[in-house]
User: What shape does this take?
Amino acid sequence: MPSERECIERLQPKWKVWLEDKGDYVMGPGAFEMLKSINEYGTIAKGAAAIGMSYRYVWGVVKKIEKELGVKLLETSKGGSAGGGSSTITETGLLLLNRYSSILAAFEKASLKI
Amino acid sequence: MPSERECIERLQPKWKVWLEDKGDYVMGPGAFEMLKSINEYGTIAKGAAAIGMSYRYVWGVVKKIEKELGVKLLETSKGGSAGGGSSTITETGLLLLNRYSSILAAFEKASLKI
Assistant: This one.
């Protein structure tokens, strides 16, 4: 039987992180996973499929963030004669991904010292 | 007009922290505010009023956490001849408050370095 102190000390901290622009929600864990997956798989279609989401939904989320921030996160190029386009993440998209990643990493590190 | 880089860098990180016990939600920011207020004001009634909540609601939240953890967070004593009881936070309740506070402080500190 754990002591009352042990009951408190064994509690696990959990957290959700999101980014705001002047008080408006911009991006949370969902959109972060999407951008990461698009960056990894090279197209919205493959990136969305890899995390079990529809192309349409992921596209909509990315467009909403782009509109909110007034920046472009993806550079879409049409397929050539072989067909199939690709969506490369822009430099700004990478900055956004990295900003969110570094916050997650800092919190993870902080949580280990508590 | 800010550059795209500035648009990303000015984004503010926000977060929500909660505690879990073996995967079960135990306490988040709401209950933390309640316990802190009870601790500050000395009774559930005054603590609840100070954060614009009902006695009944706050009492229910505290009881739920106590049941979840199998510990007592508040020590209630009945009023004497002058009337009016008080709810003192237990040592375990204080441990819980402090654990949550120190996580918040660690995250706040980590967020300043990002």
Summary: The longest helix of chain B spans residues 91-112.
